Amino acid sequence: MHIGIDLDGTVTDPQSCFHYMNDALGYAIDYHKATEYELHTYTDMTQEAFWRFMIEQGHEEAIYRRSLPHSEVNDVLWHMRKTHRLHYVTARSEAVRAVTEEWIRQHELPLDSLIMTGSHDKVGVVKQLELDLFMEDRYENAISIHEQTTIPVLLFDAPYNRKPLPDGVKRITSWNEALHIVNRFETTKSITI
Question: How many CA atoms does the CB half-sphere of 34 hold within 13 Å?
Answer without folding.
Answer: 28
